[in-house]
């Protein structure tokens, strides 16, 4: 009887695994803007939805994920909303379907003895500035800052340094003078006494000061063709991700970090927990896109991206809320 029971359980597991729908998901880096994604994976929410997820982490930044999506080597990207605008200007239809981070999460940090003073923008001239990767939102951040203050990218050197520990090391080792990055790097720089935050766009107030408004960042996006052909997969990914957002809201930073895989945690755990606590305010509570907020990244891109400036961008076709609204996990306000 015991052998029969075990065989039955094993058979059911095999059937379940066989029925799981495969989906390839790629993430640009393990910065904290993307945190709901590894939370959903580590808590088994994608499996619960009947998905067999293959994950690829491009530590170089979100622009590499975008390239993979356009090339067809991944199905769903965990990346930044502004990439959907870029793609529309190039005639490609990339659609955001869940918002993870409703605000920038970016900071500009420098060593404690830096002579760069944000109140005197010209003091940035001659500096080497580390970003996650060319074409990333950290790249957009510094280019927009320069544009707003009558400067150009010829006034500085922009260097891709990745995120997390690699970004912190680049500042610590003097490979760069300033760093534009996310948590956990932002918190690690301060907690270790390596430097200070000079411009902070993690709060709503900081984002409005830098960009003129709320700047949505991390989202789940996919090609329109994939969404049209596999709406059931997109719905399941949405359901799982919303479970993660709700779970994060109900749990402390310490509880969140305890459930993460070891390779996601940068630096010592105590500092990382503090970084998660600092970042919690940027996450969406319901996964929905707010149309008015999407005007901010469009304005930023138009300021220095010629292809976006020349194109007629219809923001309504860069995102959809229908999968979030259809999900049983949607927060009822």
TrEMBL record:
Residues annotated as domain Solute-binding protein family 3/N-terminal: 24-255
The alphabetized UniProt keywords are: Signal
Question: Which InterPro entries did the record assign?
Answer: Solute-binding_3/MltF_N, SsuA/THI5
One Pfam annotation, family name?
Answer: NMT1
| Signal sequence, renumbered to the chain | 1-20
Give the location in the cell.
Periplasm
Q: Which SUPFAM superfamilies match?
A: Periplasmic binding protein-like II
Q: Which PANTHER family match?
A: ALIPHATIC SULFONATES-BINDING PROTEIN-RELATED, TAURINE-BINDING PERIPLASMIC PROTEIN
Record-stated family: Belongs to the bacterial solute-binding protein SsuA/TauA family.
Name of the featured protein: Solute-binding protein family 3/N-terminal domain-containing protein
Q: Which organism is it from?
A: Xaviernesmea rhizosphaerae
């Amino acid at each position: 009887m015991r052998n029969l029971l075990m065989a039955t359980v094993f058979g059911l597991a095999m059937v379940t695994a066989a029925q799981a729908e495969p989906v390839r998901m790629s993430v640009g880096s393990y910065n904290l803007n993307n945190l709901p994604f590894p939370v959903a994976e580590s808590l088994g929410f994608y499996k619960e939805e009947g998905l067999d997820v293959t994950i690829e982490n491009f530590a170089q930044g979100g622009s590499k994920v975008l390239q993979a999506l356009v090339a067809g080597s991944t199905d769903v990207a965990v990346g930044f909303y502004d990439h959907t605008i870029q793609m529309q200007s190039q005639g490609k239809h990339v659609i955001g379907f869940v918002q993870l981070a409703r605000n920038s999460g970016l900071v500009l940090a420098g060593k404690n003895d830096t002579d760069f003073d944000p109140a005197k923008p010209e003091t940035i001239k001659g500096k080497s500035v580390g970003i996650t990767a060319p074409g990333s939102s950290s790249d957009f951040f510094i280019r927009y800052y320069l544009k707003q203050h009558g400067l150009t990218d010829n006034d500085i050197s922009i260097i891709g340094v990745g995120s997390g520990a690699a970004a912190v090391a680049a500042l610590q080792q003097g490979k760069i003078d300033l760093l534009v990055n996310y948590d956990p790097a932002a918190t690690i720089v301060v907690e270790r006494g390596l430097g200070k935050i000079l411009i902070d766009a993690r709060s709503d107030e900081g984002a409005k000061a830098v960009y003129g408004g709320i700047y949505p960042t991390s989202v789940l996006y996919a090609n329109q063709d994939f969404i049209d052909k596999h709406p059931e997969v997109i719905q399941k990914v949405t359901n799982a991700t919303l479970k993660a957002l709700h779970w994060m809201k109900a749990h402390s930073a310490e509880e969140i970090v305890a459930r993460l895989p070891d390779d996601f945690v940068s630096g010592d755990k105590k500092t990382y927990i503090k970084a998660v606590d600092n970042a919690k305010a940027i996450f969406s509570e319901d996964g929905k896109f707010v149309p008015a907020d999407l005007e901010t990244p469009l304005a930023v891109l138009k300021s220095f991206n010629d292809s976006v400036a020349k194109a007629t961008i219809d923001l309504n076709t860069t995102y959809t809320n229908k999968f979030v609204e259809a999900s049983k996990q949607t927060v009822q306000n």
